[in-house]
Amino acid sequence: MSFHPKMAYDATFHKSARQLEDEGPPFVYTAENRARFDQIVTRYPPDRRRSAVLPALYLAQYQQGYITANAIRHVAELLGITRADVEDVVSYYTMFYTKPVGTFVINVCRTLSCAVNGAERVTEELCAKLNVTAGQTDASGTFTLMEVECLGACDRAPVIMVNDSWHEHQSPEKVGKLLDDLKARGEAALTGCVHVVEKAGS
Amino acid sequence: MDPVLIPHVREPNSFTLDFYLKHGGYGALKTALRKKPDEIVEMVKASGLRGRGGAGFPTGMKWQFVDKKVEPRYIVCNADESEPGTFKDHLLMERNPHLLIEGCAIGCYAIGAKVAYIYIRGEFFHVQSYLQRAIDEAYAKGYLGKNIFGSGFECDVYVHRGAGAYEAGEETALLESLEGKRAQPRNKPPFPAVAGLYNKPSAVNNVETLCNVPIIVSKGVEWYTSVGPEKNGGPKLYCVSGHVKNPGVFEASMNVTLRELVEGYAGGARDGRKIKAVIPGGSSVPILLPEQLDTQASFDGIARAGSMLGSAAIIVLDDTTCMVWLAENLLHFYRHESCGKCTPCREGTDWLHKILRRIERGEGQMRDLDLLSSISNNIAGKTLCAFGDAAVTPVQTTLKHFRHEYEAHIREGRCTLPADWRARQPVGAH
């Protein structure tokens, strides 16, 4: 809602609109993730387990793809804080998904340095190829397209981030090829950051 | 000057411990542990090292303010590099992570902390994995952990991954985030040096700042102050991006001018275009015009020219850039990233963006320009952190220097730049 008489807020803008839709399937950490969690909480003072909420939520998101109310409950119980405390955090940070996303989440940077180097053409190409608009998942459930704010690699603009892997110096032609590669070879097609000279074989 | 922060970053395996040791790595930590902690603080103070994160506050003073009577104390490294145009810490952590680890360890020794947390932004996942690998190597060789170099000093370094919030780069918001809450700023005072992480005395330092500490210890205060102009000593990393031929991170002393950085290091504008404006310190600082390019790129030099060095993120814009579009693009960023704690910023950034968008589309009215100024004045200085001032800067500075472009948009009902010059709006922006 708006307190300004003439200005309606975009439905998509307010972070409070990112509500959890359902409880989701029952959630507990796998044994492996539970072990990781137990190791992570040792980094913080014993009476400050709450600090581990971000890593704990990442574990949940990697396990299940997105964060559900049940995952929030599990994390809250393990950390000894309330569910509201955890949901407060989930709804604030942009990297936690509260709805199912595709196998590959494509984040295109849209901020100044990328924008002046043609980021919007990259987004246009991706939209056309996937038949979606930014913020949507394609029909096959494989790709989710997002526009994000500055990723911090402005010298290699435009930058896109696919899941956790970076792809720099993008162009409409390159992203088309990347999509085909991802469809054909899956995660193996993610090459990562260009700074990593060892992988480039030089 | 020869680079000292990023001398070997283009060489394969420069991130490994073996490589770092071959180039004198961890020598500074060894030297530091033979001195008294207060001596290190004095050294850093004498070196005049100023925080590289944006504010340029003297690091030695910050460390001296840390309350030595309360235990435990913490070093918190701010690696939430998210100011648009900044990518120096990214390169440092990815290609020279041991320098940061050594800096954290010396910092801990100086202020009497046992734990350093490196708060890294969530998007830097691969950087985090490099950093973690370096930390594991350092533990294995005894450069971290208990009884380092047999001195009895113990130090743990942990990486904490953020989850996508620009506001977490503000020091108190970063501490809130590290405590497992929303990244929203605290009221100051008390400053982190008195009540920081977990309400204990803490020093929050930028990655590049901590990377300078081992260099001060190993090369000495005299060398350090001899690099660059007075009160702006030491090597500095500059990030140049935008419409330049050769964008990247460049290391120089602060004697360098903006012209040398833009036209020398970065190769100048592309395709023989003319430079229209330069943002010298990330999106939150006032624009400088091409005739101001001979400004010395130091904290004080750029301040004298009416802007700020900030995080030394130089964004170059050529004559194809529409300044109304630029303000709209940046306000989209600030609107999205406002943490929502203070009303002027939360509501105001949204209003500013809406007005800019309608001017950019050619639907604006002349009175909108006064409205933009009025809203800006009602945000700046009326928020808990500097975000409010940062968010209105793109609007105020473009209105000041390029008011005619706004007026042309309103008069003509469209952008007056040739259509094929214009960067199109990102598709999902509307």
Count of all domains of chain B = 3
CATH superfamily of the largest domain in chain B: NADH-ubiquinone oxidoreductase 51kDa subunit
Strand ordering within the main sheet of chain A: 2-1-3-4
CATH topology label of the largest domain in chain A: Glutaredoxin
What would you say this structure looks like, in words?
The complex is a heterodimer of chains A (202) and B (430). Chain A has helices at residues 31-41, 53-64, 69-79, 83-92, 112-115, 119-130, 172-185; strands at 104-109, 143-148, 160-162, 165-167. With 202 residues, chain A is of the alpha+beta class. Chain A has two domains: 15-92, NADH-quinone oxidoreductase subunit E (Arc Repressor Mutant, subunit A, Orthogonal Bundle); 104-189, Glutaredoxin (3-Layer(aba) Sandwich), CATH 3.40.30.10. In chain A, strands 2-1-3-4 form a four-stranded mixed sheet, with helices on one face. In chain A, helix 1 (31-41) runs antiparallel to helix 2 (53-64) and helix 6 (119-130) packs across helix 7. The termini of chain A are far apart. With 430 residues, chain B is α/β, with parallel strands linked by helices. Chain B folds into three domains: 17-226, 3-Layer(aba) Sandwich (Rossmann fold), CATH 3.40.50.11540; 235-318, Roll (Ubiquitin-like (UB roll)), CATH 3.10.20; 323-429, NADH-ubiquinone oxidoreductase 51kDa subunit, iron-sulphur binding domain (de novo design (two linked rop proteins), Up-down Bundle). Chain B is built from 16 helices and eight strands. In chain B, strands 3-2-1-4 form a four-stranded parallel sheet, with helices on both faces. In chain B, strands 6-5-8-7 form a four-stranded mixed sheet, sandwiched between helices. The chains are: A alpha+beta (202), B alpha/beta (430).
